[in-house]
Specification:
single chain, about 0% strand, 16 helices
Length: about 325
């Protein structure tokens, strides 16, 4: 089937077709518009299309029904947009689309095998699955089940990727990976775990520095990256991380919308921290935070250096 969902109204299908024809192959795909015309199933449609365009259905023999069930289950496990304004399935769909663009259109696909490309796409789809709109510091400060389960270390990221593999193991009808060999599954699992854990911002500066070192040593030849231990893994992790923080690099109308949603989520956490008598996390205190100024610093010291390094690999 062309799409993971079938609409009774043919006009709805036509809208979906028109959207993907005009928007999907652009960097500034409007995932908010897609959510409207897909009836809040943007992650399912983006997930389906990236697997289709990447030839993963055919190459690995992925079962249509299991892919459909998997994408639907993943999307349903993201938080309600009213309760989790930013880290919801729209963010996941946007990050997934950005990873797809990096691999298929911006020159990074040649550094990876088909299996590794699929691993990176699936990592993007699940990378914030189950996010509750609170950051790691909050969970650690309250010592809730996330912090206690994952020993205060990348608690949300560990939860996201653990939940993804529990879904695959506990729900056979959603296990789209049952067609790969055991060796491939072990490799894919490792790459997905590494990539999702690397989205923890506490790893940012070390990750950028490690990638810089590989760039200085290897230049741009994919064969050299393939032979150097740890190089492709570092690049894979940084591609997901870069996509995860790519909102400032999108068209201004989308960038502003994402910033406002993040602000809402941060302020909601800050209000709760005040109610609980906890230290208020950075950028979460609505009474003192200058959010616009903080975004300038985020772009200058976090986003731009990340993308500058990637640009030296694939200009």
């Amino acid at each position: 089937p062309r799409w993971p969902c079938i609409f009774d109204d043919k006009r709805q299908c036509q809208k979906i077709d028109a959207f993907f024809h005009s928007e999907f192959d652009t960097w500034g795909m409007d995932v908010f518009s897609l959510a409207q015309i897909s009836q809040d199933r943007s992650l399912q449609f983006v997930g389906w299309e990236v697997l289709r365009q990447g030839n993963h259905f055919q190459e690995f023999g992925l079962a249509d029904k299991k892919v459909r069930t998997f994408l639907s289950a993943v999307e349903s496990r993201y938080g309600d947009r009213k309760l989790v304004p930013y880290h919801n399935s729209l963010h996941a769909a946007d990050v997934l689309h950005s990873v797809h663009r990096l691999l298929q259109h911006l020159g990074f696909g040649c550094y990876f095998s088909s299996l590794s490309r699929m691993a990176l796409l699936l990592s993007a789809a699940v990378h914030d699955m189950g996010h509750d709109g609170r950051n790691n510091a909050f969970h650690i400060n309250v010592q809730d089940h996330f912090a206690l389960t994952y020993n205060d270390r990348s608690v949300l990221e560990n939860y996201h990727i653990a939940s993804a593999f529990k879904l695959l193991n506990d729900c056979p009808e959603a296990n789209l990976l049952d067609v790969v060999s055991q060796d491939e599954r072990v490799m894919l699992r490792k790459e997905m775990v590494d990539s999702v854990l690397a989205t923890d911002m506490s790893h940012h500066f070390r990750g950028v520095e490690n990638l810089k070192n590989f760039v200085e040593k290897l230049d741009r030849d994919p064969a050299d990256w393939d032979e150097e231990p740890g190089a492709k893994s570092q690049l894979q992790m940084m591609l997901l991380h870069a996509a995860d923080i790519s909102n400032p690099g999108k068209p201004i109308n989308l960038s502003d919308t994402w910033t406002d949603l993040l602000r809402q989520e941060f302020y909601s956490q800050g209000d709760l921290e005040i109610d609980l008598g906890l230290p208020v996390s950075p950028m979460c205190d609505r009474s003192v935070t200058k959010f616009a100024g903080s975004q300038v610093g985020f772009i200058q010291f976090i986003v731009k250096p990340t993308w500058d390094v990637l640009a030296t690999i694939s200009p």
